[in-house]
Amino acid sequence: MKRISGRRRAALSIIAISMAAVFSAATASADESGRQIFLEGGGGMPGCAVCHTLSDAGSDGDIGPNLDLMKPDKARVRIAVYDGVGVMPAFGEFLSEAEIDAVADYVAGTAGE
Amino acid sequence: MTESTTIPRRHFIVGAAGTVYAGAAIAAGTGSAAADDAALPDYVAWKEPDAFIQHSPKTLETKRREIGSLLTPNDVLFVRNNLPSLTAEQVGEPSAWSVAIEGVANPKSMTVAELQGLDVTQVASVLQCSGNGRGFFDHETSGSQWLTGAAGNVMWTGVPVKSVVEALGGVAGAKSFMTGTGGEILPEGLDPLTLMVERSVPIEAHEQAILAWALNGEPLPLAHGGPLRLVVPGYYGVNNVKHVKRLAFTEEETQAKIQQSGYRMREVGAKGAPDQPSMFKMNVKSWVTHPLADASSGRTLINGVALGGTETLSKIEVSTDGGSSWAEARFEGPDLGPYAWRPFVIAADLPAGTHRIASRATTVSGAVQPEDFPPNHRGYGHNGWSAHAVDVTVS
Question: Which of B275, B258, B164 is nearest to B211 (CA)?
Fold first, then answer.
């Protein structure tokens, strides 16, 4: 195995730390945009909060399922947003992929917390 | 008795206490929180808790062995509410609940009490969610992963819509649809068409439709759409509008999303659109309800239920070898009409080993339950006999 000098090791560590920081910032940003979509909607889609309870968002909508109780994973949120469920319309065309990802990450990451 | 199924890879199975968990979604990674051991929500606290798989507080699936025989008792009947049920406080005095009848010569709002004084009939019909059997599909679908238990056979009491129409001077002009509107309370700040439960069915369905106030002889529970529900026998559950506030004869289908893009049969990947078939009439279907996993050697009675949608059944067959051979079973009990299901039974003497038991129904017009049902985007209408078969081990 190729030996890595002390200086290079230090440099790699810095890169690793920086990447972690970037990743963390990206996650926080996605969380924030996901929370915003949840509360306010986007692209003509009403906010999820109108119909759903999610304590992290401070919402108490009782039209659709209580997400704190349901604790859906990301895939379930994604498909519900895309396709709708029963009376819940399909919102796939209202949001971008990134927005659907963001709101799905947000709900899956906070429901029931 | 434990339960098993032949369900494909997306599903799991069985518990020693006789539980089929709604595992399809979990296995598929879609994260259903379904459980069968949680207390029932307050609005259905009067139901039998052990009879259900809870997909969510608004979606309760009757366990396969619990659906009853000729009729499904109210306390084990499945629940699927698109919107929260109205409360007793919101409804007020049930007999004073009113429904606006429109699109007739003399439009009028009529109370339940007035309707009860006009005419009365009883009709037995299968109430079944469009997505019953969704969990049998292999592709990933949105919505509750129902297997067999989003269905029940019940007796409705109410006034024939035909009698109401006649009393109000008949349908006014040329109309193509009968449109029912639910009285659920919608959140502010939303276009009502986004969420309202308003469904249009072809006008000929009004010939058999009723405005019902009783379910199996009891006042119609709020959880099932009381005090008044539009019942369209032979049509999928969504068309049977709960808490009905308006019944209109219309030239066009409603513009509500639930009609325009919801409940549309389409290919996997396609978006819902008005030119696709709507979930109206139910198809021919049957499934075994006993035995579901184990049986003792010797004589075994194989039971199940079969429905023809809007048609009378002509035949029900059972296979104990996964569909290689079939024997005609016997319908059990009285025939409650074309919209009801019929229990069936056949005696079998099964040797030790595992047997795949399936059932296959045929209607008088020759519609036969298929072996498989083609995948569709939302997982509606599954009546394939193969997926509904059960593997039973005889010791």
Answer: B164
ipTM of the complex: 0.71
Q: What are B372's strand-pairing partners? A: none
pLDDT digit string (tens) for B331-365?
999 999 999 999 999 999 999 999 999 999 999 99
Distance CA B170, CA B163 (A): 9
For tokens 């969704």, name the residue. B134
pTM metric for this prediction? 0.86
CB-based contact (8 Å) between B271 and chain A?
yes
Sign of the dihedral defined by the CA atoms of residues B146, A59, B198, B278, in that order: negative
CB burial of B241-257 (b: ≥16 within 10 Å; e: otherwise) equals bbbbbbbbbeeebbebb
My answer on whether omega of the bond before B291 falls inside 30° of 0, hence cis, is: yes
The number of helix segments (H) and strand segments (E) in chain A equals 4, 2
As a whole number of Å, the end-to-end CA separation of chain A is 46
SS3 label, residue B235: strand
What torsion, rounded to 10 degrees, do the Cα atoms B91, B96, B100, B104 define?
Answer: 150
Give B-chain residues touching A41 at CB under 8 angstroms.
none
Taking the Cβ of residue A44 and every Cβ of chain B, the question of whether any pair is shorter than 8 Å is answered with: no
Q: Are B224 and B78 in contact (CB under 8 A)?
A: no
Question: Best of A51, A66, A83, A93 to disrupt the B interface by mutation (most B CBs within 10 Å)?
Answer: A83
Question: Residue B299: what pLDDT?
Answer: 94
Q: Give the strand pairing for B218-219 and B210-215.
A: antiparallel
- Does the CB of B31 have a partner CB in chain A at under 8 Å? yes
Q: Does A94 touch chain B (CB under 8 A)?
A: no
* Residue whose C-alpha is closest to residue B247's, from B99, B83, B94: B99
Interface list for B 306-335 with A (CB within 8 A): none
pLDDT, tens digit, 9 for 90 and up, residues B116-167: 999 999 999 999 999 999 999 999 999 999 999 999 999 999 999 999 999 9
pLDDT band at B14 (very low <50, low <70, confident <90, very high): very low
Would an 8 Å CB–CB cutoff place B187 in contact with chain A? yes
- The first and second tokens of residue B31, run together, are 């994260």
